[in-house]
Design goal:
The protein is built from 4 helices and 7 strands, in the order βααβββαβαββ. The chain has 158 residues and is of the alpha+beta class. A 7-stranded mixed beta sheet has the order 1-2-3-4-5-7-6. Strand 3 and strand 4 form a beta hairpin.
Length: 158
């Protein structure tokens, strides 16, 4: 479990946990709002399959208190940089500070690996809410692209 002690606006303790036999169905069923489906899959199940078929990515359940509310994944690039990917917070759980707590928790944990690793993520240029969130947490665009997404790097520990 990855735990930075952060809470959402409702006071729920937000942690990141391995996807296991007890929570994988709840993680697979995580669905974004309809207006976000241009940027993320309709269900987090797609990310679970990706991590099962990839040696790069690892899925995590985003948990508020004891309820699965989202999915995130992380990976390590060839240059040693750590990446956050596959972030989906369930539509019913959005706008409560869960995503902010999850990104901050994962970014802090990843940046502490190997004595201060670079942490990157990417997002679609039209995903303004994601851009605002990531910028507010210290991520700055690098000018690079990953497929059709802008790459941002954590400029300082959050």
């Amino acid at each position: 479990m990855i735990d930075s002690g952060l809470r959402d606006r409702a006071g729920r303790h937000v942690t990141l946990r391995p996807v296991d036999d007890g929570n994988w169905r709840a993680v697979a069923d995580v669905a974004p709002r309809d207006d976000q489906r241009g940027w993320v899959p309709a269900l987090a199940a797609r990310y679970l399959v990706l991590t099962m078929r990839s040696d790069v990515w690892t899925s995590l359940a985003v948990v508020a208190d004891e309820t699965v509310v989202g999915h995130a994944m992380w990976g390590v690039d060839d240059d040693g940089s750590r990446w956050i990917g596959g972030m989906v917070i369930d539509a019913a759980e959005q706008d409560r500070g869960v995503g902010r707590a999850a990104v901050r928790t994962l970014a802090d944990w990843l940046s502490a690996q190997d004595g201060g690793s670079v942490v990157r993520l990417s997002y679609h240029p039209e995903n303004v809410p994601a851009a605002r969130l990531y910028t507010s947490l210290g991520f700055t665009p690098t000018g690079g692209m990953e497929d059709d997404e802008l790459v941002a790097e954590l400029s300082q520990p959050s």
